[in-house]
Protein: LysR family transcriptional regulator
Organism: Secundilactobacillus collinoides
Amino acid sequence: MEFRQLVYFRTIVQTGSFTEAAIQLHMAQPPLSRQIANLEAELGVQLLNRGAKGVTPTDAGNLLLSYADQLIQLRDQADHQVRFLGTAVSGKLQLGMISSAVGVLPNSLAELTQHYPDVQLLVREGHTYQLIDWLEKHQIDAAIVRTPFSVTGMTEQALMEERMVAVVPNTYDKGLSANIAIADLNDLPLIIYRRFRNIFNQTFFEAHITPFIASYCDDARTAVQLANTKLGIALVPESVAVAYLGMGMTVHPVNYAGWRTQVKLIWPKTSAKSPLLKLFIQLFHD
């Protein structure tokens, strides 16, 4: 199996046509067809269904496509990391970032592209464990993530620590103090950011309370949006509450030291840091 065959195969699947793929690849159709036939013969399976409505992958073809995407992306990543491992600050920095981390980016970030015109910052958003997966697959260079998480083989740099807050619609704001105690949550419908579910449940257990959980969700922004519909009170990191706060809601810090979360910059220990990545990391110290 050759890289070019994977590129050919992926292009055919993306276009749904041998003819269109040949045009994109700047080659004639017969040799393209031969390469795919050779690939199918080597693997001993049919990869493509050829029909009147176009070309579609078989089950085996879909599996190969997922590997082809990863291998081609990994090859491109290796190319740009090795190419720019010298002394020149240039190339592409692929940064993964959780949606609530924009506020931790250094003010000097603009200098990266102003002073180094050959630098391009590519940002991919995802949740913490998705970003860790991309790091482990070398699909990104570094990531800004949020605790709690469990991972090995990464260098970590703490960027910010913040408290959890309650985003309270006016409907539920009657008589609440500015700072909410854990016991105050017992009589309120709660919207829980799922990553903190175990931490919250342990705290409720120790406090001998059983609050009503109106909803669990996988994104802290969604929790705030649900609170805005008056479904309940969202428990989220403070930066999320401030950034996505809607009309008719107030923010109340939760008076409990155990509910703290950190935003961290992480990158693989085994990866050689390019000059560009080194410069990016240094921006957080300036």
User: Anything to note?
Assistant: The chain is about 40% helix and 25% strand. The longest helix spans residues 59-83.
